[in-house]
Amino acid sequence: MMRTVLSVEYAGESFEGWQTQPHGRTVQDALELALARIADAPVPTVCAGRTDTGVHATTQIVHFDAPVARPLSAWVRGANSHLPDGVSVRWAQGVSDDFHARFSATARHYRYVLFNGPVRPALLHARVGWFHRPLDANAMAKAALALVGEHDFTAFRAASCQAHSPVRTIRYARVQRHGEYVVFDFCADAFLHHMIRNLVGALVYVGKGAQPVDWLAVLLCGRDRTLAAPTFSASGLYLCGVEYPDQWSLPGQGRIICTPQLALPESCIEPESKFVD
Fold this sequence. Notes:
It catalyses: uridine(38/39/40) in tRNA = pseudouridine(38/39/40) in tRNA. This protein is of the alpha+beta class. It has helices at 27-39, 72-80, 137-144, 195-207, 215-222; strands spanning 2-10, 46-47, 56-66, 87-95, 107-116, 129-131, 149-152, 167-178, 181-188, 237-243, 255-256, 273-274.
């Protein structure tokens, strides 16, 4: 068997999350079915980060052990010919069998795109979040600084989270306004279940003036999920990059692919933004 790495892009509104389910309506189910058509055999896959229902990805990293020899182009163009419109394999690369899409990763990059206007968007339905009242992006940016570093994120994890530890290290947490859009960028070694959506929900409370700028710092110290804001919509959340050690020489390392142009105004597009420590 040869271990192969794929970069996969998908629109999450068409699927019930990444992880395979008996009903088969997940990204993993669609991908494995397509790969099996190329291999003429089952092809189990492992991803860098399992995304929830409605969450999108511009760069989901996946590995599998190919049961048969196929050219890399078959795992891209061949698989894409069997995938639904909402999923696309962007590239494929062979690696040694000690590579692991999840455990070899050193960081994940997520972006949340929020439309901040009085009327809900129609053309970007399911591709952006929405909040109708004006938000103070500067206040949210200041509040997000408290998240940087190693912390216990119990106040921002889902009740169903199965992670052994709530401690995570956030490399950066940024909030910027681009016209009617507010963009949240997060990078960490890993994230807890619903962690980013819970962080965005808390930041929106600060942005609308319901809580002070230091509220997120207070929540971190309190470690009580019931005191924090509700989980925000999945619609605007994108997995947009996964980092690995240089030894793997994967395409695009040192850069992230941010949200597609459809989901952002032109002034906000950074198709090859450099990773920032």
